[in-house]
User: Fold this.
Amino acid sequence: MIETRGLRKSFRSRAGRETKTVDAVRGVNLEVAEGEIFGFLGPNGAGKTTTLRMLATLIEPDGGEATIAGADLRKDPAEVRRRIGYVAQGGSTWDESTAREELVLHARMYGIGKAEAHRRAARALDAFQLTEYADRKCKTYSGGQRRRVEIALGIIHEPKIVFLDEPTTGLDPQSRAHMWDEIRRLRTDGMTVFITTHYLDEADALCDRIAIMDHGEVVAEGTPAGLKREISGDVVLVGLDAATTPQAAQLLDSEPYVNKLETVDEGGLRLYVDEGATAIPQILRRVDHAGFTLTSIELHRPSLDDVFLTKTGRSLRES
Amino acid sequence: MKLARDTWLIFERQLQLLLRNPVWVFVGVFQPVMYLLLFAPLLKPALNAPTQAEAYKIFVPGLLVLLAIFGGLFQGFGLIAELRAGVIERSRVTPVSRLALLLGRSLRDVVSLIAQAIIITLLALLFDLRVFIGDLLLAYLMLALIALMTSAVSYGVALKVKSEDALAPLMNTVAQPVLLLSGILLPLTFAPGWLQGIANWNPFSWAVDGTRALFAGDLADDKVWQGLTITAVLAAAGVFWAARQFARSVR
Assistant:
């Protein structure tokens, strides 16, 4: 659905007399398959929005190529525009207009006839549960309602791909969960969804595949689970009393699925395994069989922040 | 075809928003009406006009051109608000005609200007101003061309500077000399030679002269076709330049 090779963009910024060139995006290669929710995860200023705006034809790349829904971004941006939807981060509705007016206008800007535009607007209002407020001015909407209108605008022409720039930033937790459901529904309807986010949990819960971006480059790409597994596997914390710990350590150290084993000072073991879900039953069986008493067992999965930390040397939470 | 359709689409939307908030009519008309009521009475003695009606024939056309210039030049503020709200960017990701984004807005400004001009003209009728309807319509055409040009330029500049703080002083700096050098408040026939010489290079001065000739009923006066031609050429140039700004920032 989306394929990019070496997509680049730099900006000139003037600070006093000096002109500095900032390489916002330095050669991004991506492949996004049809029907996935693909996420761009990274700190603010990593180049996510710039990349997205290039893909949405809003800024011209300095170099590189991209094919989007079968159309060439450099040669035929007009065709790309027809096949994609784009929802900006900062909003796109006019205070004095109503949701219905905005939807009808937007549909008509895509060349859709008046009657059909009204039908689509009504359908979109219904699908996004906005019918109740459809004829009120946008300035009276809550943040979540307004964001739903904006997403409805982005897909009113039934694009193959929709780009959502930070779709849940600034929403309260409930609206956020609601928005995730809406985004999943887009995929169910057959759309490919490309989002940017700086929320770890959002990338984890919502995206089928993610690319982690930092300083204008993609530093890692894969499924959230795959990326996490790639760096360290899972950690299983086994609670034992201090007396039996050394013996249990000896016992478990020879198990094939345990990559590494550490003893916890106050008793208990920290086991590094590939797949916690399959290791835990085996650990339980082994320990039980040997007659030791477990006080607790916990599974710790590495987070995407651990992935980010491994790839960039920084925590995403700090940057 | 697509251009006409898209232009109508944008025009319709902009007009709808304008009509929703009709305060603009009064805000727009308030200043000219103040001139009409509080400044124009000084003109009969000052211009040595035989009657008050004669004085209005000279003053009202200038006032209308003033309205067209200022009304147009400050439309860019609305565009900056739209840029900030993300409405322009939203339009940019659609295949809508880029020229239509400009023309739809500018035509809305022309319509709102003509509505204001009609109100001023009707008020002036109460002060015994008389003008033939044909001449008046040609004068309105002149006003429409001026407003088309100033509003297009204002939009173009707004796209470039992207901030109200920059647009306001810029437009004021342009508007003031244009105003003083066009003989809007007092005809430049009173001006010393050097001032007239400079004013000859001000296209708005030609527009004012042409509009005055129309209000005087001198359809055959050369100033009429000269004024119309100059404003038409300028309007075309203004729209062309602003359309390039739209197309460039919008690709």
Notes: The CA atoms of residues 6 and 100 of chain B lie 6 Å apart.
